[in-house]
Amino acid sequence: MTAPTHPFAHLSEVQLAELAREFDAIHDRVRADLGERDRRYIKGVIRLHRQIAVAGRALLLGSRSKVAWTAGTGCLAVAKILENMEIGHNVLHGQWDWMNDPYIHSSTWDWDTASTAAAWKHSHNYIHHTYTNIRGKDKDLGYEIMRIDPHQKWHPAYLAQPLYNLLLMAFFEWGVAVHDLDVEAIRAGEKPMKDVWHDIKGISGKARDQILKDYVGWPLVSALAATAVGRLVHREPRSRARGRRRRGAVRAQLAAARTEGGGTFAATFWADFTANIIRNLWAHSIIFCGHFPDQTYTFGQEEVEDETRGGWYVRQLVGAANITGSPLFHLMSGNLGYQVEHHLFPDMPSSRYAEIAPQVRDICRRYGLPYNTGPLSKQLGTVHRTILRLAFPGGKVRPKPGPYPGDELQRAA
């Protein structure tokens, strides 16, 4: 196995310092320009999410109908994706803290997923975004359960990784919640038991709330509403009902509850389950495509000793990969189709990534650096090929892209 050529070995310390100043300048220009249009954007996305969620819940009142169930489940899945990707992930990064809104703030936001905000901010915002793609430091590099880089030592347990990756795809939110515990540190005795129990308490409480909300609360609301509507629709005229009131009232009520309520409860339960699976599959795909395609670099700890600000920027740049797509795709992916820009500026509002992407590409062109991007099908294909190949011993580093040629040459190619 041969290591890839260091992506910025050709840059001098002076060039790295100048590159850092250019990236800092992009960040500062956007920061100075944040204002009302950005505020309207995030509030509009939150409003859209709520409208779609309400539409889904209303449709699921009639979830015993296949059409209503399908439409309601689809709305619910879209709402959950929006809430996780474009709202929750980005709010918890502090992208909207500049508004000083007590509700849309990283210190107060709680999201619709199994991870607690506090545990996720530590494992993701701090550990992952500080030590991005540093082997042995970045816990998100394979999520401690998968071999996704040939530098990782092979173990027979990895033979099963194509199978348990399928489970991770379907139940991604639960996998991330367990990952936030930092099982490796617990096993090594590096994490105090006091912190372990604190995290377990937080995650178990969040898991309880999620289960009660999706699999008890909302199905019960749908069941009660469907029962009430059913009784109104099937109520007999007063003159006929008067003579039957005493002998059949209790029996009719129980029958209505069983037929209308019971069926709707079960249908809504499975709608919530399906919507969560769809959200998990989408989140897994977007996140893996942003971190593990062939083009991305990983780093040994010795390579980043005495790392400068410019070196940190370049490591973020080449440790991530973008996904091309339409504005709707980027909205539904939480703008993580611009994973390169997100890693460079994780606290910048995601709605600004498309705006700064040409500036980032221009820096890559002038400094002879790669700009990793590709369509979803290509990125996803290389990710799953890597997961399958590296389940077995051996493996080699895939070829890496060369310096970005510039937008005009890229379009011509």
What can you see in these coordinates?
The chain is mostly helical. It has helices at residues 13-33, 36-59, 66-92, 117-130, 161-170, 172-179, 183-187, 193-233, 238-291, 309-318, 327-332, 339-344, 353-367, 376-389, 407-412. The mean pLDDT is 90. The two termini are 30 Å apart. The chain contains 15 helices and no strands. Helix content is 63%, strand content 0%. Helix 9 (238-291) packs across helix 14.
Give the topology, please:
Layout: H1 13-33, H2 36-59, H3 66-92, H4 117-130, H5 161-170, H6 172-179, H7 183-187, H8 193-233, H9 238-291, H10 309-318, H11 327-332, H12 339-344, H13 353-367, H14 376-389, H15 407-412
Helix pairs in contact: 1-10, 1-13, 2-3, 3-9, 5-6, 8-9, 9-14
The proportion of strand residues reads: under 5%
Shape: globular
In the predicted model, the low-confidence regions spanning at least 5 consecutive residues are none
Secondary-structure element series: HHHHHHHHHHHHHHH
Number of strands: 0
Task: Tell me the helix content.
Answer: 55-70%
Give the overall pLDDT as a whole number.
90
Structural class estimated from helices and strands? mainly alpha
Cα(first) to Cα(last) distance is: 30 Å
Tally of DSSP helical segments = 15
Quaternary organisation of the protein chains: single chain
Q: Mind telling me the C-alpha Rg? A: 25 Å
| Main sheet characteristics | none
Q: Give the domain tally.
A: 2
